[in-house]
Specification:
This protein has about 240 residues and is an alpha/beta fold. About 45% of the residues lie in helices and about 15% in strands. The chain has a six-stranded parallel beta sheet with strand order 3-2-1-4-5-6. Helix 8 links the parallel strand 4 and strand 5. The protein starts with 12 loop residues before the first strand and ends with a helix.
Length: about 240
């Protein structure tokens, strides 16, 4: 991590959530959680995306199911940095395209943020929409922003400082603001995928094999195949 401080260090620190504060995407987390318990409802919710806005889809999904924010794969190095900045008197803000219910649950869990800006049924806070909201809130150049993807370029264009997360080398050309810090992924992509799958939590999935043991259908390969598929789906 290059932790070179610029004048941006005096500005409010705004953190993105998906891919930045987290190593995963809360929208996918919610869809997988709903698929695991109510697959038909999950498909119906996904189908609603075709006839409506993404903001409305996120609102419907958040009404259907929440996620356990305590088990999400947080980026600890960035969280530690934000805590140090806040302890030094800096304002820390969460600004995310995730639904406000998810964002506030994460904020309550971490106890880190002074303010939360997120998507609602009325609007999807991503890209240009997030840039406008932050510029209206803090003024152009009046905040430093931590992001992880090309979609954040619009925000960096109106920010007074940038924090590059994940793959900084790819993001530097997209951030015209002074770079305050960089947090690079040091693990391989396959290792990160396995970590985000959180295999250590899969022990409970063994219960899907219980009906086979109870019914005595040991010799039916189709039943075993269905159980194996269910095991990985619940994971």
């Amino acid at each position: 991590m290059d932790d070179t401080t610029t004048r941006a260090g005096d500005l409010p620190l705004v953190l993105d959530l998906d891919g930045t504060l987290l190593r995963s995407d809360t929208l996918y987390e919610q869809m997988l959680a709903l698929l695991a318990v109510r697959p038909l409802e999950a498909l119906a919710t996904l189908g609603s995306l075709a006839g409506g806005s993404k903001a409305a889809f996120k609102d419907r999904l958040s009404d259907a199911i929440g996620i356990n924010v305590t088990t999400l794969p947080y980026r600890d190095d960035l969280i530690d940095h934000a805590r140090r900045q806040r302890a030094a008197g800096r304002r820390v803000v969460l600004a995310t395209a995730s639904h406000e219910k998810v964002a506030r649950a994460v904020a309550d869990h971490l106890g880190l943020f002074d303010e939360v800006l997120a998507s609602t049924a009325e609007g999807n806070l991503k890209g240009a929409a997030k840039a406008r909201a932050l510029a209206d809130r803090f003024g152009e150049g009046g905040f430093a922003y931590a992001g992880d993807s090309p979609a954040d370029a619009a925000v960096w264009s109106v920010a007074g400082g940038g924090i590059l997360v994940g793959r900084p080398g790819r993001l530097r050309p997209l951030c015209p603001a002074p770079v305050e810090a960089e947090f690079a992924d040091r693990e391989s992509i396959p290792r990160l995928i396995v970590k985000e799958m959180r295999v250590y939590q899969w022990i409970k999935n063994i219960l899907v094999f219980a009906p086979i043991l109870a019914s005595g259908t040991f010799g039916d390969p189709a039943i075993w195949l269905q159980a194996v598929v269910a095991f990985f789906c619940f994971g």
